[in-house]
Write a structure and sequence with these properties.
The protein is 49% helix and 16% strand. It is α+β, with helices and mostly antiparallel strands. The radius of gyration is 21 Å and the shape is globular.
Length: 377
C-alpha cells in the first residue's frame, strides 16, 4: 500500500492514527468478539471518539465534513486487520442515505449519535424471498392517518442485533412494483419490532447478522426518508459507493493474505530450505503480487473518480467483481501455501479465508455484477 496516488500527507497522518487505534482497540479483543458473535458497544464509542465513524458527515451534525478518501482509509485498515465490522456499513452506506435524503430534523436526530457511536444503524433490504432483485420485496409500509404501519421480515441484516435505527426498504405502493418502494426510519424500540437469531455464518463471526421482523410497527410520517415511492432510485444512486467500499475491503484483505503467505513461507522449512525458496512458491506469489499492484492502482483510480462524482454504476460493479474475485484467488493461494497449518484456526489465514467467501455474494453477487456490466456495453 506504499506510494498511493491521490492521498496527501494529511491523509497519511490519519491512516497512522487509524492503525494505532486498531492495534490498541482491536487486536486484544478480536478473538473474544469472534466467539461472542458481535463487537462490543465500547468499540463503537471508541471509534467515534477517535473520529473513525462517518467522516463525511457535515460539521453541523457533529461530523468532520471530510471527503470519501477518509472513509476509504478506515475501510482499508479495517480490511487489512481482518476486522469485519459494521462500522464501515454505518460510515460508507447508512450515513449517506440520511445526509442525502434526510430532513433537517432527521439529520439532527440521528447523525451526531452515529458519528459518536452512541447510535448503531443498519439498512434492511434483503428478505427471505428477495435478494439481489429488490423489486421483489414483500415488506410493506401502509399509510395510516399521520403515519405508516410497517409489516414484513428481513434477513441477513448486518448490525441487526445491535442496531438502534434501521432504514427499512418497503413498498408503500405495492401495485407499482419497483416504483412503489420507499425508505423508512424505524427505531428499534418501536412496538412490533423484533430481532430473530444472530445468524450462524461460515465466517465474519464478529459481525452480527440477523433476521428482523416488523409486525404492525407504527411510525410517524416524519420517519419517511426522502420522498415516498422514490426509494428504489435512492438505492440505485447509492450503489456505486457501496460497491466501491466492498472492493476496497477486498483489496486490503487480499494484501493481508499475501503478506501472511510471504511471511509464513519464508519461515517454514521443507527439504532443508524455506518453502519460499521453491520456484513454485515464488512464481505463485509473483502472480499474486502483480495482481495486487494492479489492484491498488485501480482502487486509487476508482476513489479519485468517486470523489469527483464520476464513478459510474458499471465501473463500481466492475470494481466489486474484480476485487472480490481476486481476493478469493489470493486468499485461497495463501492458505494453500500454508499447507496443513492453513487449515488451523490459530493461523490468521484460516479466518481470512473464511471471511473472504461471502464477499463474492453480499452487496450484489458476482453474477449480478456481470449482468450490470453487460447491460452497459
Amino acid at each position: 500500500m506504499d506510494r498511493r496516488v491521490g492521498y496527501s500527507a494529511e491523509h497519511e497522518m490519519f491512516r497512522d492514527s487509524v492503525k494505532k487505534f486498531l492495534e490498541l482497540e482491536f487486536a486484544p479483543n478480536h478473538q473474544r468478539w469472534e466467539e461472542k458473535g458481535w463487537i462490543d458497544k465500547s468499540f463503537w464509542l471508541a471509534s467515534g471518539q477517535a473520529g473513525l465513524l462517518c467522516p463525511t458527515v457535515p460539521e453541523a451534525y457533529g461530523g468532520l465534513d471530510l471527503d470519501y478518501r477518509y472513509n476509504a482509509i478506515v475501510n482499508e485498515e479495517i480490511g487489512y486487520h481482518g476486522l469485519m465490522t459494521g462500522t464501515v456499513l454505518q460510515s460508507d452506506i447508512v450515513a449517506g442515505y440520511i445526509i442525502d435524503h434526510g430532513t433537517e430534523e432527521q439529520k439532527l436526530a440521528y447523525l451526531p449519535k452515529m458519528v459518536s457511536g452512541e447510535l448503531i444503524a443498519a439498512i434492511a433490504m434483503t428478505e427471505p424471498g428477495a435478494g439481489s432483485d429488490l423489486q421483489g420485496i414483500m415488506a410493506t409500509a401502509r399509510r395510516d392517518g399521520d403515519g405508516y404501519v410497517v409489516n414484513g421480515a428481513k434477513t441477513y441484516i448486518s448490525n441487526g442485533q445491535m442496531a438502534d435505527l434501521v432504514i427499512v426498504v418497503a413498498k408503500t405502493s405495492p401495485e407499482k412494483a419497483g416504483k412503489g418502494i420507499s425508505l423508512l426510519l424505524v427505531e428499534s424500540d418501536r412496538e412490533g419490532f423484533s430481532r430473530g437469531r444472530n445468524l450462524d455464518k461460515i465466517g465474519q463471526h464478529c459481525s452480527d447478522t440477523s433476521e428482523l421482523f416488523f409486525e404492525n410497527v407504527r411510525i410517524p410520517a416524519s420517519n419517511l426518508l426522502g420522498e415516498e415511492n422514490r426509494g428504489f432510485t435512492y438505492l440505485m444512486n447509492a450503489l456505486p459507493q457501496e460497491r466501491l467500499s466492498l472492493a476496497i475491503s477486498a483489496q486490503a484483505s487480499a494484501q493481508r493474505a499475501f503478506d501472511e503467505a510471504v511471511a509464513f513461507t519464508k519461515d517454514r522449512k521443507a527439504f532443508g530450505r524455506s518453502v519460499f525458496d521453491f520456484q513454485n512458491t515464488r512464481f505463485s506469489l509473483a502472480d499474486a503480487k502483480a495482481k495486487l499492484q494492479l489492484g491498488w492502482a485501480h482502487i486509487d483510480w476508482c476513489i479519485t473518480r468517486h470523489v469527483a462524482g464520476d464513478l459510474s454504476a458499471a465501473e463500481a460493479s466492475a470494481a466489486k467483481l474484480w476485487h472480490t474475485e481476486t481476493l478469493w484467488q489470493i486468499v485461497d493461494l495463501a492458505l494453500q501455501l500454508h499447507g496443513g497449518a492453513g487449515y488451523m484456526n490459530e493461523y490468521a489465514i484460516a479466518r481470512l479465508w473464511r471471511d473472504a467467501r461471502v464477499q463474492r455474494i453480499y452487496g450484489g453477487t458476482s453474477e449480478i455484477m456481470r449482468e450490470i456490466i453487460g447491460r452497459s456495453l
